[in-house]
Specification:
The protein is mostly helical. The protein is built from 16 helices and no strands. The longest helix is centred in the middle third of the chain and has 18 residues. The chain is elongated, with a radius of gyration of 23 Å.
């Protein structure tokens, strides 16, 4: 393999003109050395061009880029090949994904997988061995997938999220808490309405997490959601929380949100736009 990315770029694009899964296999080798944005694009484009040749054997279980999860994940992501996700999941389940490549592989599964595959991602997020920052990232990927493709993990979603919601007072888990709240809204888990409301009403919780809980409740919807948003858009609340409440309220009742926004702006000389407590 040539050490210079531009030389590999020319080779990769040349391979795109050779039909067959072997050309796709060889093109992915370019990722194993130093890369730049031009080479990344060349590999991405080649994976898409050759998808009619490598995708069918991957779907049949006859080819998996020689068990290289990084290469398979890159090809799947490039081509948006959701039908090839089971092959990637199998490598992960069989323990054939290196620790170095796991984050990228799981991200591809979270972005393109179906309910069964997303359940695997949720399991990884719950695992004790998963670092806190990685858990938060995985949960946010799952939430984004739900909003983009209306797909969520298979099975019970209440109990896993409750574990994170009960971390409301733990200052070292705020990113996880926010991500779990994000999932509760994206998955529209109505059974968690009361728990999310508790986060909103618990003043010891940091303001960003209270804001996230309000947004999740608004996303879940219902008459109780509107009542809560109106309450926290009032003058007794912190200014940033009022802004969040009004923004969320505007999606369901623009007229009321507008009227309350005018009232809030009339108080602007009394309050600092920060997390300062209301006067």
């Amino acid at each position: 393999m040539d050490s210079h990315p531009r030389v590999r770029l020319e080779a990769v694009r040349g391979l795109s003109n050779i039909p067959g899964w072997r050309a796709a296999l060889f093109s992915m080798w370019a990722l194993d050395g130093s890369t730049d944005k031009w080479l990344d694009y060349a590999v991405w484009l080649t994976a898409r061009d050759l998808a009619p040749h490598w995708l069918p054997p991957v779907e049949k279980g006859e080819f998996n880029f020689n068990g290289n999860a990084k290469h398979l994940a890159y090809a799947i992501k490039s081509a948006g090949a959701t039908s090839a996700i089971p092959a990637l999941v199998k490598l992960l389940a069989d323990g054939k994904v290196s620790e170095q490549d796991q984050a990228e592989v799981i991200q591809v599964i979270a972005t393109l997988g179906g309910p069964n595959e997303l359940k695997l991602v949720l399991d990884v997020a719950q695992a004790d061995a998963t670092p806190s920052a990685r858990r938060a990232a995985l949960l946010n990927e799952l939430a984004a997938t739900a909003r983009k493709r209306n797909v969520k993990p298979l099975g019970d979603l209440v109990e896993p999220l409750l574990v994170w919601l009960h971390l409301a007072e733990a200052s070292d888990h705020q990113a996880e808490l926010t991500a779990a709240i994000n999932c509760a809204g994206a998955w529209k888990v109505e059974k968690l309405h009361g728990d999310l409301e508790a986060v909103v009403n618990f003043w010891n919780v940091m303001i960003p997490q209270r804001q996230a809980a309000l947004e999740a409740i608004a996303e879940i919807g219902g008459p109780e959601a509107k009542k809560l948003l109106v309450t926290h858009a009032g003058p007794k609340e912190y200014w940033p929380v009022r802004v969040t409440s009004l923004a969320a309220l505007s999606a369901s009742d623009l007229k009321l949100a507008t009227a309350m926004s005018v009232e809030m702006l009339q108080d602007i000389d009394k309050v600092t736009i920060s997390s300062e407590a209301p006067a």
